[in-house]
Design goal:
It is found in: Golgi apparatus membrane. The chain is α+β, with helices and mostly antiparallel strands and 565 residues long. It contains 16 helices and 24 strands. It folds into four domains: 34 residues, no CATH class; 242 residues, Spore Coat Polysaccharide Biosynthesis Protein SpsA, Chain A (Alpha-Beta Complex); 60 residues, ppGaNTase-T1 linker domain-like (Helicase, Ruva Protein, domain 3, Orthogonal Bundle), CATH 1.10.8.460; 132 residues, Trefoil (Acidic Fibroblast Growth Factor, subunit A) (Trefoil), CATH 2.80.10.50. The structure holds uridine-5'-diphosphate (UDP) and manganese (II) ion (MN). Manganese (II) ion binds next to loops.
């Protein structure tokens, strides 16, 4: 997993939906324009410029790329795009050793590293990635890693079916090895084992002092390895993440990302955290960033990674393995750091060809993490996925060896972790529900934050996007408190005690003003304000329009419906 700036989310914001609609309208306009241009060109006769008909105006591939392609080329590009989730057409046309922008800060560029650093094995894992993509990754590694430090590049094929990854890839490996004897190795899985096991297989095959385990659709940037190797030389217990830039899936331009710490929410989706104050206090842009977790791509002392249990081989297909490593590293005597001077360009796909719905795998793997590492906090993960703790119905596999590992390594608990490593991870004791909140009287309308700016919650047709995300313990929070961190200003539902409307107030202000923000609520029961004893209910006026009101309880009930499952 490498985190996109807006991490994969099951609750897309309305803005995104509007954005999509605007884009479709825009695409249609473009198509009309290009038709008019063709028409004008016909009339003018001497105008030779060919403007092609856009065959796929709704495809993400052609939003800002491909206007000059013939119809035949568009079809080839579109088919490759659907198969791979990125622009293989452009990849096949770009040089393997293309230059990319050096995105390091000036102070990184000035740093000088010792020559005698530990050696490195670089692992590239893949499952049906495009051949030119893999070759460009290899080329960038060879060109941008000091030859005396690069011991080997290990390709791990997670049972790909594409023909070009068989014979043609073998030929390429031979060619590389003719120039750089013994540099390239390949491990092939006999059946599909998922990305975690692919990373483990790469680690098993590696022999250098340090191992870097990368996706196959990357291009390493200038001097990416030296910061990693010198940091691990200083401290073998640190697990490292480089900083990612995004290779855009359509035009392959490099989009620079800021340096950030790697975090996660309670569903264990990745997210970027602001840099810690202590890091700014150092006034050194090259300093390592202490990070609660890791995104997936990692570098570590090979033996140390083995000592702490590499990765959880019981994980399926995708997701969760990165958080598991983050917790295990911190809880068992290691640490995680992001190194600002080590930069890797990573291609963010438009879609995952191997799994249309990532949440199925992430959910299952998240429960493994919760069960092994999260102690009394594990129910937050169950809540985030809206699963009962007992009999969740999800078979997360055998955990005995991971639990034994935790015992053997004498690891600290999650309570220590959350207090000392990740205090930004919001913890709400005694959560009753999370998701959209529906009145059982009428199930197609939901509690909604109402117009913004404004502070009157309303009842609105259910659409499950973020203005309708609610959660409650003894307070009713709006927005995704469970899934985000402290920098958001949460709002709480309060009963003003008079009038017939509930009011939203920023929670900390509601607390300091002593407003009525505590409620008694259980799944499927009334929502009663603890102080005023009034209920949050709905009324219909004579036009049949519903309003959310505070009134004397009449026995109305609410249920939470999850957004995750
Ligand atoms: N991968 C794999 N086996 C799988 C799924 C993925 O080996 O079953 C590889 C994939 O080719 C890629 C890496 O795992 O090199 C990470 O997957 P992906 O890039 O799709 O995840 P993201 O980086 O977008 O989170
Ligand atoms: Mn990737």
């Amino acid at each position: 997993m490498v985190c996109p700036l807006n991490s994969p989310s099951y609750s897309k914001s309305l803005e995104e939906v509007h954005e999509k609609v605007k884009q479709i309208e825009h695409d249609q306009k473009l198509q009309n324009i290009s038709r008019t241009e063709v028409h004008q060109a016909d009339n003018m006769k001497e105008e030779k410029k060919i403007v092609h008909h856009l065959l796929y105006p709704y495809s993400d591939l052609f939003k800002r790329w491909g206007a000059d392609l013939s119809e035949e080329e568009q079809t080839v590009a579109q088919e490759l795009f659907l198969k791979y989730g990125y622009n293989v057409y452009i990849s096949d046309h770009l040089p393997l050793d293309r230059p990319i922008t050096d995105t390091r800060s000036p102070s990184c560029k000035k740093r000088i590293y010792p020559k005698d650093l530990p050696t490195i094995s670089v692992v590239l894992i893949f499952m049906n990635e495009a051949l030119s993509i893999i070759l460009r990754a290899i080329t960038s590694i060879i060109n941008r890693t000091p030859a005396h430090l690069l011991k080997e590049i290990i390709l791990v094929d997670d049972y790909s079916s594409n023909d070009d990854l068989k014979g043609p890839l073998e030929t390429q490996i031979k060619n590389y090895n003719a120039k750089h004897p013994g540099l390239l190795k390949i491990v092939r899985h006999e059946k599909r084992q998922g990305l975690t096991q692919a990373r483990i297989s790469g680690w098993e095959a590696s022999t250098a002092d340090v191992v870097a385990i990368l996706d196959a659709h990357i291009e390493v940037n200038m001097a990416w390895a030296e910061p990693i190797l010198s940091r691990i030389k200083e401290d073998r217990t640190v697990i490292i993440s480089p900083v990612f830039d995004n290779i855009r899936f359509d035009d392959f331009e490099l989009l620079q990302y800021s340096v950030a710490a790697d975090g996660f929410d309670w569903a264990l989706w990745c997210l970027y955290e602001p840099l810690p104050d202590e890091w700014y206090a150092l006034k050194d842009e090259t300093a390592p960033v202490r990070s609660p977790s890791i995104m997936g791509i990692l570098a570590a002392d090979r033996k140390f990674l083995g000592e702490i249990g590499v990765l959880d081989g019981g994980m399926h297909i995708y997701g969760g393995e990165n958080v598991e490593l983050g917790l295990r590293a911190w809880q068992c005597g290691g640490k995680i750091e992001v190194l600002p001077c080590s930069r890797i360009a990573h291609l963010e796909r438009a879609h995952k060809p191997y799994l249309p719905d990532l949440s199925i795998a992430v959910k299952r793997n998240a429960l493994r993490v919760a069960e092994v590492w999260m102690d009394d906090y594990k129910y937050m993960v169950y809540f985030a996925w809206n699963l009962p703790i007992e009999n969740s119905g999800i078979d997360y596999g055998d955990l005995s060896s991971r639990k034994e590992l935790r015992k053997k390594l004498n690891c600290k608990g999650f309570d220590w972790y959350i207090k000392n490593v990740y205090p930004n991870l919001r913890f709400l004791p005694n959560i009753v529900g999370y998701g959209t909140m529906k009145n059982t009287l009428k199930e197609d309308i939901c509690i909604d934050q109402g117009p913004v700016p404004g502070n009157t919650p309303i009842i609105y047709p259910c659409h499950a996007y973020s203005p309708q995300v609610m959660q409650t313990n003894e307070q009713i929070f709006t927005d995704e408190v469970l899934l985000t961190v402290t920098f958001k200003l949460d709002r709480c539902v309060t009963d003003p005690g008079s009038g017939d409307l509930p009011i939203l107030e920023q929670c900390d202000i509601a607390v300091s003003k002593g407003l009525n923000l505590h409620w008694d609520f259980k799944q499927g029961s009334a929502v009663i304000n603890r102080n005023t004893k009034r209920c949050l209910e709905i009324t219909a006026d004579n036009t049949g329009t519903y309003r959310l009101v505070m009134q004397t309880c009449t026995g109305q009930r609410y249920t939470f419906i999850s957004l995750c499952s």
